[in-house]
Amino acid sequence: MKRNLCLLIALMGCSILFAQTQQERLTHHVYYLASDSLCGREAGTVHAQKAASYIVQQFEEIGLQPFFEDGWYQPFEKYGTTTYRNVVGLIPGNDPVLKDEYIIIGAHYDHLGIRNEKVYNGADDNASGTATIIEMARILKQQQNTLKRSIIVVAFDAEEKGLWGSYDFSKKIDVSKVKLMMSIDMVGWLEKGKSLQLNGAATIKNGKRLLKDEAKKTHITVSPKNFETSLFGATDTQGFAEKGVATLHVTTGLKSPYHQPEDDAELIDYPGLDLVTDYLADVTLHCANDPSFAPSGKISPIHGGKKSVIEIGPSVSLVNANITFPKAGFNGKNQYGVDAGLMAEVHLGSHFSLQTGALYELLRAKYPDENDLFNTYLPYRQQSVLVPVNLLLEFGSSGLDFRLGFGGYYGHLLSTDLKGMPGVQIDPNQWGLSWSLGFQFGKVNLTGSRRYQLNPMFSGTDMPQAKIQSGILTIGYYF
């Protein structure tokens, strides 16, 4: 009797588990992974190992098989001190040829751990993504008989340390067989984010149309973007994209309190997470089963891909200027000013660019008082429109380009403020030479430069001729 009762209870438990909806399972995954008991899942800790064990348990229950012959884990080390572990599962395809090609769906399961005695549970970042790949795997496994290409499901470790897990996995797999790598990172705030962001559509042939067509089936709002462009938003796509693989970074954005102790499970939009899971499973099925699905060959500039022929964007600079009197043996004193405006570049091949722009400049300096040349200085201020023209030499890799520039500039004065020198006329046209040294990471560029005025600053006067020299620190962004 007791044995029958136990059997009945076990059967009822299995029935309840089986009857769970996908949304309920997603909720359970997030609440477990983002629980205080896992102490923030910091990579390399016993708490991250518990999270990894939970993921293995789910993969086994779903019926995935380990990707590697020696089991679910792909261990790796950094700096020879700590062992980290990716969890890698496989759903084999059935087509005689296409089964040797892969679609990778991945999400990192680690987070920040405990800091200042506060637990950083990381519900959105990235328990939400980890829960999503688990339930995507369940859907895809149920459709295995229809799959042509094989699907790799991977939970990456040590993303928060510097994308270590995904980089290591990209070295262990033959990337020539990977048709698409999808990183699902922070997808738990669909309602507040308004849409599902899909960064990297241009790396897929007809990518935007594919992603929008699949969205119509699920009735989800999506925002496909050609490339990943964020300097600070690197995700697990990076190691694959740098090897020429088509990649898609999937996120609901930065609306959640990510990287804060408040990123907790009760704040997740579970109906939205359910919708995201269904949509991404549909996209994956399409990519796995369409024989014509292919990468476009285009890679984001931040991953080492080609830049657009023409780029344009805003820039702002801090300008440190000085008025010099080269033949008189004395100089003024430096003062800070600013310039801001639009810059544009035309790329002339892989290593050269022509840069120009239109800038408003507020320049300030101090010049010697003629009554006390070496002790007293008077303020000078000018406003002008500046047009720089530079030839840039660029070299680098992995989306980081070092840039060396030479050129010149023309400035037209809008107004001047010169005190203590009555009768002195200032030439409204200023021109000279410049050189620059800087770097560009993706769409962001940071440059230090020097400008040397060649024509005399003053006209119509017998006083020693003056010229302006400037040091400039510029930050810009190209759309």
Account of the protein in words:
- The protein has 479 residues and is α+β, with helices and mostly antiparallel strands.
- It has two domains: 20-303, Zn peptidases (Aminopeptidase, 3-Layer(aba) Sandwich), CATH 3.40.630; 310-477, Porin (Beta Barrel), CATH 2.40.160.
- It is 24% helix and 40% strand.
- The strands form four sheets. Strands 1, 2, 3, 4, 7, 8, 9, 10 and 11 form a nine-stranded mixed β-sheet that branches. An eight-stranded antiparallel β-barrel has the order 12-14-15-16-17-19-20-22.
- β5 and β6 form a beta hairpin.
- The longest helix is centred in the first third of the chain and has 20 residues, at 123-142.
- The chain is elongated.
- The termini are far apart.
Number of DSSP helical runs: 9
Relative helix content: 10-25%
> What about the largest sheet?
9 strands, mixed
Which architecture of the largest domain per CATH? 3-Layer(aba) Sandwich
Give me some keywords for this one.
alpha+beta; 24% helix; 9 helices; 479 residues; 2 domains; 9-stranded mixed sheet; Porin; disordered N terminus; 8-stranded antiparallel β-barrel; elongated; Aminopeptidase
